Amino acid sequence: MSVNNYQGNKFSIKGSSLVNDALTVEQALQISINNKPFTITMRTPGNDIELIRGLLYSEDIYRHETNPKITIVENDEKMITDANLSISANLLRTGYSNSRSFLSASSCGICGKTELEELDTSKHLKSTYPLKIDQLQGMFDLMRQHQDTFELSGGSHAASAFSSSGQLLCTMEDIGRHNAVDKVIGYLLINNLLNKANCITVSGRVSYEIVSKVFAAKIPILAAVSAPSSLAVDFAKELGITLLGFCRDAKATCYAHPNRIYD
To answer: Where do you find CATH 3.40.140.10 in the chain?
Structure first.
């Protein structure tokens, strides 16, 4: 959990009163590679190692099986966390050589990407284990049980990974939807569980960027509480990802590759 208490005036038709609300923390994470600034991402502190590992993987910056050396230093005066990664130059991939130098805002869609063609669509996801539709509600119930920050603040998103048998592999929270997904991917990589993940659930809407991250991790099913964007659906169809939206009240709408879902 990462929340701070803030005082506010609560207004209603009956008048106003002072309240102390727990708000989700949002702070900057400056990521450098070999002492050279690479990107700044706005995130909720906590699981920064997982966030960085997942970001490196999903953005095709570093995909070697060995976890890179990461040094993290808190800069309380500037309210920023500095993370420096030591990575052999010959292991840095296309995402780094493109040198995007982007600011990844917590509510963004396509953060710093210059062309949609940067996403490799040649490796269409094909094989997977099917998912029974009534398993979905149980998955979202499990994710909700692990949303401790949301329980306190109502201001964070969550993502969870599940195996083909419906086993919860991990749940991560962050103020940014895509950060929560990166934290999940990073956790799976660090714990050698990526090949067991069959489905990712997310607590909000689905943008193109989240689809691209799930595709990078080769996780074939993506399910969301809320709506997908049109571009998310277009790319899910192109990439072979089963995409479901409006997964609530024991209902779900599948927008791409429904062949993996059965009732």
So the answer is: 131-262
CATH T-level topology, domain 131-262: Cytidine Deaminase; domain 2 (3.40.140)
Determine the pLDDT at residue 26: 94
Could you tell me if 163 and 219 are in contact, meaning their C-beta atoms sit under 8 angstroms apart? no
Q: Cα(233)–Cα(94) distance, rounded to whole angstroms?
A: 25
Residues 6+ apart with CB under 8 A from 190: 49, 50, 53, 67
| pLDDT tens, position by position, 113-137 | 445 455 555 567 876 788 999 899 9
Averaged pLDDT, 11-18: 94
Q: Can you list the positions of beta strands (E) in 63-210?
A: 69-75, 80-86, 103-104, 131-132, 157-163, 168-174, 197-202
CA gap 20, 5 in Å, rounded: 6
In angstroms, the CA 182 to CA 239 distance is 19
Neighbouring C-alpha atoms within 13 Å toward the C-beta of 201: 28
Q: Structure pTM?
A: 0.90
Amino acid at 109: G
Q: What is the pLDDT of residues 90-101, one digit of tens each?
A: 999 988 876 554
Catalytic residue among 108, 111, 199, 247: 108
Measured CA to CA, the distance from residue 150 to residue 144 in angstroms comes to: 9
Question: What span, in angstroms and rounded, lies between the C-alpha atoms of 31 and 39?
Answer: 5
Tell me how far apart the 2 most distant CA atoms of the chain are, in Å. Answer: 65
Which of 15, 5, 24 lies closest to 154, judged by CA?
24
Q: Is 108 a catalytic residue?
A: yes
